[in-house]
Amino acid sequence: MRRGLLGFTFLAGLILASPAWAAESPRLISYPTDDGGTIQGDLYGSGDRSVVLAHGAVFNKESWGDQAKVLVREGFRVLAIDFRGYGRSVGPDARALDEDILGAIRYLKSQGATSVSVIGASLGANAAALAAIRSPKGDIDCLILLAPPGVPRASEIKAERIAFIVSRGDENYRGVVAAFEKAPEPKTLDVLDGGDHAQHIFRSAEGEKLMSLIIGALR
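The structure corresponding to this sequence follows.
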């Protein structure tokens, strides 16, 4: 009995002492939005460079778990949010998803972040683009848009750099290319093989390439 207890204590000590283990265990946080909402998110890692992850319509904050852990190992603090209407996040206007992203940026800056990038997928990409239009210049470092359904005011985006990523067979392909052409420099457009949409790409043969593109854009 004593040997088993000592073995458990030793193993627990190793786990708790491991920076990688600690970095990959998210902490549940919440923050207010300017329109009176309350948004919940999973906060991974630490550091002064931060990334907001904004999910697609059929996903949630937990869907980013694997990608968040990769980004933490790359040195980023990561906040994956649940949009209003998902999980326990709430807001008075169900359509005002950009408020949730703007609130996430403010939260990270209040926690010491010196730079904040935003990755949005599909629905989340549209919300991220609108947040980048509304935010003050300099608030968003890198804006990564995965297959946004449409960005009507792409020319008004304010970010230090913008990356568009889409699958060639995605039904949004033409719209993404049109938004890219209107967006301000510096910007990039990467087209992946296949027809998987936004976050679904991570589970496809192009998943590793997509993650590499994201890390390259953030750097």
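DSSP finds seven helices and eight strands in the chain.
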